[in-house]
Specification:
By secondary structure, the protein is α/β, with parallel strands linked by helices. The strands form two sheets. An eight-stranded mixed sheet has the order 8-9-10-7-11-12-13-14. Strands 3-2-1-4-5-6 form a six-stranded parallel sheet. A hairpin with a 2-residue loop joins β11 and β12. The longest helix is centred in the last third of the chain and has 19 residues.
């Protein structure tokens, strides 16, 4: 299993980072990851000035900007802009950034496909080097799994399955209660994006996403999706966030099977959330023994280094493409939209005669 690259390479001369939005994900993941990666964050801004000031004080950031436009006026294209705001706010921020700037946009790429289309148009018009922070595909376990698939070690791909039976304490996310689109839009979007990164986009989907009385008030916390690929590939996703019978039969895995072997990827952060467990990657040739791949890090926080490193390297000419650029991320948003449309479609009735 030697030679598997699990970490996105670091830029040789990184540009300073400006954070637009100073919420919890920035505190818990972005800034710790950038610190670990040796990337410099020079300042932040937020509609709540006190929140931006608190973030700057806690992490030693030298600047607090009154607005994103003020930051852009001072730094221009010499900085990378990390847009960590709610999806409905993205469209109002991108126009004030300098043309040609490097930008990392927090997922999802807007609230729906129509907004994603507008975001893509703005990025095209301004020639932004813009990526979306679909960081699971950058995690050590998924980068390794992708290389194993592409090496042919598993043979022709036959099965891609995501299976979650866990307990997620939804009550810690009260801001989700008013939302009409929850589970796929904020959680399983990661899995759909990573499936695309591993085996490409499906031609279509069948889906259902529903609520659960054990998570009262939240629109959906359970999801079933069949991904329609050309044969022989079968894709499916089954998600239950409400299992309240202890750890013994909880599960959170990607199962990847081909004609020559299989791989299992454990999503450690999903267990005992937000505490989590270790991520794992196991590989087995047909008729052989399972062997574990040593991982260089975890989804949280190590995966958050990759998207920013990629944007930095594209701006420096060290990478040719953005692995999660807006052009690619748009197709993840299209897949999410198709899931919601399929979930709203009527089922074929079963004959009672």
């Amino acid at each position: 299993m030697s030679g598997i690259v699990q970490d996105w390479p670091a830029p040789s001369a990184p540009r300073p980072i400006i954070i637009v939005g100073s919420g919890g994900i920035v505190r818990d993941a972005h800034l710790p990851a950038y610190g670990k990666a040796g990337l410099s964050v020079v300042g932040c801004t937020d509609l709540d000035a006190a929140r931006a000031q608190s973030l700057a004080s806690d992490f030693g950031l030298p600047h607090v900007f009154p607005t994103a436009a003020a930051a852009a006026a001072e730094f221009g294209t010499d900085a990378i802009y990390d847009i960590a705001v709610p999806p409905q706010a993205i469209r109002s921020i991108l126009p004030v950034l300098p043309d040609g700037a490097g930008v990392l946009i927090q997922k999802p790429m807007g609230s729906n496909l129509a907004e994603a289309r507008e975001i893509r148009a703005i990025c095209r018009d301004k020639a932004l080097k813009a990526a979306v922070n679909f960081q699971l595909r950058f995690s050590p376990m998924m980068m390794a799994a992708r290389q194993i698939i592409r090496s042919g070690e598993l043979g022709e791909m036959l099965e891609v399955e995501v299976h979650l039976n866990i307990y997620t304490p939804w009550q810690i996310f009260p801001f989700l209660i008013p939302m009409k689109r929850v589970e796929i839009a904020v959680h399983s979007i990661h899995y759909l994006d990573t499936i695309r990164a591993l085996v490409g986009s499906p031609a279509g989907v069948f889906a259902r996403t529903i609520g659960d009385p054990r998570a009262a008030g939240f629109a959906q916390t359970r999801t079933s999706v069949i991904l329609d690929y050309p044969e022989p590939l079968r894709g499916l996703m089954t998600i239950n966030h409400n299992h309240q019978c202890g750890r013994k039969f909880q599960s959170a895995w990607f199962r990847l099977e081909g004609t020559k072997g299989a791989a299992m990827v454990k999503l450690g952060v999903d267990y005992d959330y937000p505490n989590g467990e270790d991520d794992e990657l196991w590989v087995c040739a047909n008729g052989g023994e399972w062997r574990q791949v040593d991982l260089t890090g975890s989804w949280f926080i190590d995966a958050f280094m990759g998207p920013m490193r990629n944007v930095q390297r594209v701006m420096a000419g060290e990478d040719e493409t953005l692995f999660s650029g807006v052009e690619d991320a748009f197709h993840t948003m299209a897949l999410v939209e198709a899931c919601f449309e399929a979930a709203a479609a009527p089922a074929i009735p079963v004959s009672q005669d």
